[in-house]
Write a structure and sequence with these properties.
Layout lengths: L4 H4 L3 E4 L5 E4 L7 E2 L6 E7 L3 E7 L11 E7 L6 H5 L16 H11 L4 E9 L4 H7 L3 H13 L7 E8 L3 H10 L7 E7 L11 H11 L4 E7 L5 E2 L2 E2 L7 H13 L4 E5 L3 E6 L4 E6 L10 H4 L2 H7 L25
């Protein structure tokens, strides 16, 4: 049974200098103070084998009267939470710390989108692989539903929305969720695949469920970013097989969605962009004429910021996709 911390404590009372009591409603019960940007963090283990790291704004910036957007970010294969959060470059620091900068991208979002509290919950599967974790646990779909509920329970149930985001193998968590639920809840406002839609399947009715959800409310959005990975090679060998890769899966999504909705195509120099349902569907396919490996570059180049702001007044204000980093001032030092 999930019990919300909001049901246990409505505010934290601190003793102010001079002995008086000061109520700080922005302090989240059960959270600790981070050394970075005075953020509030809660870290816990969700059995079996999932590490959850919830990062909320500083108490002075968290307004309990506002809506809270919880971005649940499913980690890519092989990466730790610390590497996904990111840090500044320094000698002898593993390169994985420099390729996503999700922590800094979320902080940039908080700087621009001030009408809501923006929270990110990093979820790392045991073995650093969501596909492997799902294969290990036959009841993974039920577990994923409970995992998401456990994260939501940290915040006021009536003023919290969820956005499911993923990179690489992290997309497996989202597809596990789609397979489990017959109807995506209305409190899920965005679903984001950053080169992570490997598991998309018409046969498993992923498009049917997504389209039903997208049509229900104007604040439901689907974001997909992928690149042409059909001819990329490592040591002379093709990385993906003749039917694999996210480019082909994205094409299948476009074909299926196109049967039910009108998709407008916009051709830019580096990529093609497809819109549908008044911007609620936003799919980007990088052209990649030089056959480069862009798997993490599309995240690093403001990929998450774009996906969280598409079809809103904040699109390109917080950061332009495939442009220079919009978040460098918000990268933590260590």
């Amino acid at each position: 049974m999930i019990v919300s911390v909001w049901a246990m404590c409505l505010a934290v009372v601190l003793v102010a200098p001079g002995g008086g009591a000061e109520v700080l409603p922005g302090v989240l019960p059960g959270f600790e103070l981070s050394p970075h940007f005075s953020e509030q963090v809660r870290i816990y283990t969700f059995d079996p084998g999932v590490t959850v790291h919830v990062n909320a704004p500083a108490a002075a910036r968290f307004d309990p009267g506002k809506n809270t957007r919880v971005v649940i970010y499913a980690l890519p294969n092989g990466n730790t939470i610390a590497q996904t959060v990111g840090r500044r470059k320094a000698p002898d620091v593993d390169w994985h710390f420099f390729i996503q900068h999700i922590g800094a991208q979320i902080r940039r979002m908080r700087e621009v989108v001030t009408q809501e509290n923006i929270v990110v919950a990093y979820v790392e599967a045991e073995g650093r692989s969501w596909p492997s974790w799902r294969r290990t646990h036959p009841d993974s779909g039920q577990l994923i539903v409970r995992l998401i509920d456990s994260i939501r329970a940290n915040f006021h149930p009536d003023r919290t929305t969820v956005e499911l985001a993923s990179h690489s193998g992290g997309g497996s968590l989202i597809f596990g969720y789609l397979n489990q639920v017959e109807r995506i809840p209305d409190w899920v406002h965005r679903i984001i695949f950053l080169d992570s839609n490997y598991g998309y399947s018409d046969e498993q009715r992923h498009a049917d469920k997504l389209l039903d959800w997208l049509r229900r409310q104007p604040d439901h959005h689907l974001g997909v970013i992928a690149y042409d990975d059909r001819q990329i090679r490592v040591n002379g060998k093709l990385v993906v097989g003749p039917t694999g890769g996210t480019y082909r899966k994205t094409q299948r999504m476009l074909e299926r969605f196109g049967q039910d909705v009108v998709l407008a195509e916009e051709s830019l120099q580096e990529y093609k962009r497809y819109h549908g349902l008044k911007g609620r569907i936003d799919i980007i396919l990088l052209i990649n004429p030089d056959n480069l490996i862009l798997h993490t570059v599309l995240v690093e180049k403001n990929g998450l910021i774009h996906s969280l702001t598409s079809a809103t007044p904040h699109e390109e204000r917080a950061g332009r996709f495939w442009g220079p980093h919009a978040y460098d001032d918000w990268i933590q030092p260590d």
